[in-house]
Design goal:
By secondary structure, the protein is mainly alpha-helical. It contains 14 helices and 6 strands. It comes from Opisthorchis viverrini.
Length: 350
């Protein structure tokens, strides 16, 4: 029997539940087993050590920040709700691995250039939190992430609010400053992946809608300040052929493409509507194909008597004789073409 009510909205997939349990296990071990954290976390000073560089694949399992861990659990739950029936598991895993790996590498390289202190450490999944904010913005920038009545936090403001919260937590030492760097790097790499690299069967690669531009993630007063340097960097990368060109797309066309395939469903009702429409289209297609095979269309060259026997039977009961009076027609050839013959019809109602 299908689950109804609040329990249905709290249902998560097996792989999401497994990931949550794995992250919680790493979070617990980081607090109670000191060597767990030091062996799995990445230190920027070890960036050029081939052996210790392998920690780019383990740093996400080590976190001792309460805020980062529980925000990660919450956002992974949101991701499962967003991409259900839209992304495959392979695509979701590819996206998370891509963002986490490049975010920690770019953050480690930046911190190595700015400060080579051995106390700097990168751990946790702040990059994943930012990446899921970007995914939510791609699906629908006006949907509410958190709401109370008519007031709430919209997807388009999710990144900037999260970044300000991380800065505030860092000021009070709830998180490390390196987590702020990870968060911002995760935002940039996740936007780059979804903007240029994500494969869509109907629209090739990337999401090129104007509403998904980099400047749209910032408040209106900051959009122009962000748009100018981002456009400048884009044109430099485009000239150097390091970045694919952007094809302008209509918002309406893009929304329809998202609803038909990957991604773009904004709520559970939209997902259910898409599934119902798909099933209905398949049923109608099957029915039309069967009816075309069985139905024999009438030949236009045949007379009405061979194809419409029921209709002619009714006409025979009503029309008994048709008399054509040719005497009224003139004898000349021109008259035959100009004046039609007079037809007298005698009907008997039986």
């Amino acid at each position: 029997m299908p689950m109804k009510g609040p329990g249905r909205s709290l249902r998560v997939s097996i792989w999401t539940l497994s990931l949550m349990c794995l992250l919680t296990l790493g979070y617990t071990l980081s607090h109670f087993v000191p060597t767990w954290f030091t062996r799995l976390a990445l230190y920027p000073v070890d960036l050029f050590s081939a052996w210790r560089l392998s920690k780019i694949f383990t740093f996400w399992l080590a976190t001792d920040e309460h805020v980062t861990h529980w925000l990660t659990i919450l956002t992974i739950f949101m991701l499962d709700k967003l991409i259900r029936d839209s992304w495959s598991k392979l695509e979701a895993i590819t996206f998370l691995v891509f963002v986490n790996t490049l975010a920690v590498l770019s953050s480690a390289f930046t911190l190595f250039l700015l400060d080579r202190s051995p106390s700097l450490v990168l751990s946790g999944n702040a990059a994943v939190i930012a990446a899921i904010m970007v995914v939510s913005m791609q699906f629908d920038g006006e949907r509410f992430l958190l709401s109370y009545g008519n007031i709430g936090l919209k997807s388009r403001h999710g990144f900037i609010v999260g970044f300000l919260l991380y800065l505030l937590f860092a000021l009070f030492s709830f998180v490390r400053w390196t987590s702020c760097c990870l968060y911002f790097s995760g935002f940039l790499w996740s936007w780059f992946y979804l903007r240029f690299l994500q494969y869509h069967p109907q629209r090739r690669y990337g999401d090129h809608r104007p509403s998904f531009a980099l400047a749209k993630f910032f408040p209106g007063a900051c959009e122009h300040w962000v748009a100018f340097p981002s456009n400048l960097i884009y044109h430099v990368l485009l000239r150097s052929k390091l970045c694919p060109g952007v094809e302008r797309q209509s918002e309406i066309v893009s929304t329809a493409s998202f609803a038909a395939g990957i991604p773009g469903l904004t709520s559970d009702s939209d997902r259910h509507r898409r599934i119902a429409l798909k099933a209905l289209n398949e049923r109608l297609f099957t029915k039309s194909a069967t009816s075309e095979e069985i139905t024999e269309w009438p030949d236009l060259n045949e007379t009405d008597g061979t194809n419409t026997s029921n209709t002619t039977g009714e006409h025979r009961a009503e029309v008994q004789s048709v008399v054509v009076d040719l005497t009224a027609a003139p004898s000349t050839e021109a008259g035959l073409t100009d004046t039609p013959p007079v037809i007298e019809q005698t009907e008997t109602r039986g």
